[in-house]
Every structure is written in C-alpha cells, then in structure tokens.
TrEMBL record:
One of its GO terms (molecular function) is structural constituent of ribosome. InterPro entries: Ribosomal_uL5, Ribosomal_uL5_C, Ribosomal_uL5_dom_sf. This is Large ribosomal subunit protein uL5m. Residues 145-162 have a biased composition (Basic and acidic residues). It comes from Schizothecium vesticola.
C-alpha cells in the first residue's frame, strides 16, 4: 500500500492501458523506414506462408481427385444426422435441449417465404388505424372501481350421477353455438383483417357447365387464387336442383391478398356502384365477421374483369358473396375496423 501511495497524482490519473502502452519515439512524419519494415514481435507467432501461394495441382493429381467416384464406391451411406440438420417435428417445451428454429429460418418446417409486398391498406392499418382504434375504444376505469363478474353462460351438472363428475359444462338451452364475449381493445388484441372468403352460387350450372367455367374464371381473376368447386347439399324439385351437382365456386384468401382485395373493393368498386348506400349495419354473426354481396353488374366493375370484359359473356358473369373475417370479438369492433379502412355502412346499427 505504501508503494501505491507513493505514486504521483499524475500517474494515478492515467488509465491502465495508457500506463502499459510501450513508449514510441514521437515523430511528426512517418515514412518507409527500416524500423517500420521490421516485423513486429507481436506477429512472430503467425505463419509467414499464405494459401494463395499454394502451387496448382498437376494434371495427374486432378485426375486422381474424383469425389464422385469415392461416393459411388461407398457401400454404406453417410449418417444423415451427422451431416444434415432436420428440425424436430414437435415442440417439446422451452426446456428441451433441441428447439425448433424460428419461423423466419429457411430450414424451419413452417417457413413461408415472403412477404414480397406491403399492401397500402395494411400499411395504413399499421400506421394509423391501429392507434385510432385504441383511442376510439378506450374506456377509462378509475382506480378502485369494483369489477362486475359476468354471469356464467354455461350450465353445470347436478351431480346426480357419478358420470357427471369432471364433465365439462353445457351450453344454454336453445343456443347450440354461443357468440364470443366482447373484450376491450388493448394493444394486445387490436382488431385486424384475418381472411376473406368469396362464394358464388350458380344454379344454372347444373344444366349449362359453361356457367361454372365463367364463374370460376371471374372469381379467380378478382382474387388471384384458384377457387374450389362446390356441390349442392339438398334437392329442390321446384327449382330443378339435384343433390350432389356442381353449382358454385368458393375461395378463401389470407394475408396480403385479403388486404389487396378489400383495398380494390373500397377504392375502385364501391364508388362506382350506382345508387349504393353502403353495407347494411345489421350484418354480422356476433363474433366479428361481416358479409356483403356483389351483383353481376358490380363484379364487372373490378379492374381485372373490366380490362378483359370481352372475354366474359355479359349475361354469364355471376354475382358473389363476400365474408370478411376479422380478429374482433364483436360486430361493433369489426364495424369500427372496416369504417376506419373506408367501408361505408347504412341503416340501424345492431349491437
């Protein structure tokens, strides 16, 4: 300790790297000199030879080097687990030593390339609509407010039988399917577009198969996906409908394709429909899914149909029904989402 105290204040103010740094003679100009050309003692352990100076193989050595021949002569294949990596099929928990790679990794089993474009409507949702929805749906709850618990909508068993034990609850009478419970919009569950399904019913296709070909071509043009052919479920004698006959097409689009389709509907098709008030505000299934329809004249307004209008017979262009599925938990939140994107609604709103 006495030796440390004896160090001057100037030396104490220096860092360890400054103290251990070797002293070099200061000079105002450094040039090519014998001192600069001399090898540094710190680089003495490095090899002076370089792989760039390796002599080229002779023709005899090139002919002798045949890896394909060595692989063909091998009687047993190399173990795949040692030279190839196969991601696990199942996720066995976060503590398992073997973990599945990220979805963005090309070797992952669920890897999907893309996205290759960013739709304008989706970019608007990310930058503007999402924050506006949180502001519009914000409900201030003062601290200390009592929370009212919701009544249980499911029926419990009366335990009159030993088979009732540990049995899940039943739904209410007369309501086999319960709608979702509306949850407050937070930064964790902002409603967004999930998928769009387009269905087209062509009953005349049972007698004229060309009707089905035109309908499938039109739906494929406006969605960019190959539709599936649907068949009738029941027979109706009055309408000459036979069960099992091909009488329609349907297709479901997801992600950016769904945003592109809705963008074309809002900015290119809806403004050109004559005497159109908007989508009925009573639409919805109670769980955040809305629907609307297009007449044959409205389908012809899509740019994909309009640019090749002569390719489709005018009287054979079908109408279609559009089902918009969102991540909202109520029809009110789904209407807020579509209204923010530019979809008009009319009529009495049903909550």
């Amino acid at each position: 300790m006495a030796g440390v105290r004896g160090v001057s204040r100037t030396a104490c103010g220096l860092s360890l790297s400054q103290i251990s740094r070797p002293a070099y003679p200061t000079c105002t100009r450094r040039g090519a000199s014998s001192a600069a050309a001399a090898p540094s003692p710190a680089l003495a352990d490095l090899e002076s030879d370089s792989t760039l100076g390796t002599p080229e193989l002779s023709p005899e050595e090139k002919l002798a080097f045949r890896p394909w021949k060595r692989a063909a002569d091998r009687r047993l294949p190399l173990p795949g687990s040692r030279y190839k990596y196969h991601p696990p099929k199942y996720a066995r928990g976060p503590l398992h030593p073997i973990q599945s790679p990220a979805t963005s990794d090309p070797i992952a089993r669920d890897f999907v390339p893309g996205p290759f474009n960013l739709p304008r409507l989706r970019q608007t949702w990310q930058s503007t609509v999402s924050s506006d929805l949180m502001t519009l749906a914000y409900l201030h709850t003062p601290p200390g407010t009592e929370k009212h618990e919701r009544a249980d909508r499911l029926r419990t068993w009366d335990d009159s039988s030993p088979y009732h034990k540990n049995r899940p609850k039943r739904g209410p009478r007369g309501a086999p399917v319960l709608p979702l419970i509306e949850r407050d919009i937070t930064f964790r569950n902002i409603p967004e577009l999930k998928e769009i399904s387009i269905a087209c019913y062509v009953p005349r296709a049972t007698k004229d198969p060309d009707q089905l070909v035109v309908a499938r071509s039109a739906i494929m043009a406006i969605t960019g996906a190959l539709p599936d052919i649907t068949k009738t479920n029941k027979s109706v004698v009055q309408w000459d409908i036979v069960k099992g006959k091909k009488a329609g097409v349907k297709v479901t689009i997801y992600g950016n394709e769904a945003y592109d389709f809705l963008d074309r509907c809002i900015h290119l098709v809806f403004p050109r429909i004559k005497d159109w008030q908007g989508i009925a505000a009573t639409t919805g299934d109670g769980s955040g899914n809305l629907s609307f329809g297009f007449t044959p004249d409205s389908v012809a307004l899509f740019p994909e149909i309009e640019v090749n209008y002569d390719m489709y017979p005018p009287k054979m262009i079908p109408g279609c029904r559009v089902f918009v599925k969102t991540t909202a938990t109520s029809d009110r939140q789904a209407r807020l989402l579509l209204q923010a994107m530019g979809v008009p609604f009319f009529g009495k709103i049903r909550d």
